[in-house]
Amino acid sequence: MSPPPLSAPGIVLRPLELADAKALFTAHSDAETHHFWSSPAHTNIEETRSYIADTLAIPGARVWAITEAGGEALGRIGLFTQREGVGEIGIIMRREATGRGLASKALTLVCDFAFGPLGLHRIAADIDPDNSASLSLFLRAGFQREGLLRGNWKTHLGIRDSVILGKLRD
Predict the structure, then answer these.
(1) pLDDT tens readout for residues 78-128
(2) Which end of the chain is least crowded, N or C, by CB within 10 Å?
(3) Number of domains present in the structure of the chain
């Protein structure tokens, strides 16, 4: 499902495309950026292209490229509908695009879209407890820590816990 473009001053979210694989390989191949991902850093662009194709094929997925003006993807943000009224957000940014407020703006735009036109009443995020940058991003956006799921993910780092953050429409 192709999402609509979303924008605010200094940012444009456009539908993610397979052609974004080269730009997003920069993020997915960076071992530090990809450290808390569920899989190890990608070793080639085809792996990133396949990951994008798999993500776009998820039923109910709405995935955007994070750009400054609609051009090259500096990151990606996805909203995945888990069940009626409930979604989950995931985000990754290229290292050179961090610290400019793009992730924060993208998160705000997607939450506004989810709570507005989509009519969701809850959005969640599942974040590794050691991923302080993501935890901070979501907390600043009004998400609240709801719990810890112990041993929730088997990743390249081993068995990992999940911090569950949630934000309600009201």
Answers:
(1) 999 989 999 999 999 999 999 999 999 999 999 999 999 999 999 999 999
(2) C
(3) 1
* DSSP run (H or E) holding 108: helix 102-115
Residue 160 to residue 38: CA distance in whole angstroms: 9
Nearest one of 19, 24, 11 to 90, comparing CA atoms = 24
What is the residue-averaged pLDDT of the chain?
94
| Residues constituting the chain | 170
Please give the order of strands across the beta sheet that includes 75-83: 6-8, 11-15, 61-67, 75-83, 86-93, 122-127, 158-168, 144-155
**41: which residues sit within 8 A by CB, 6+ positions away?**
28, 29, 30, 31, 33, 34
| Structural domain containing residue 110 | 6-125
User: Which pLDDT belongs to residue 1?
Assistant: 66
Q: Is residue 156 part of a domain?
A: no
The domain that contains 93 carries what CATH number? 3.40.630.30
Do 131 and 31 contact (CB within 8 A), yes or no? no
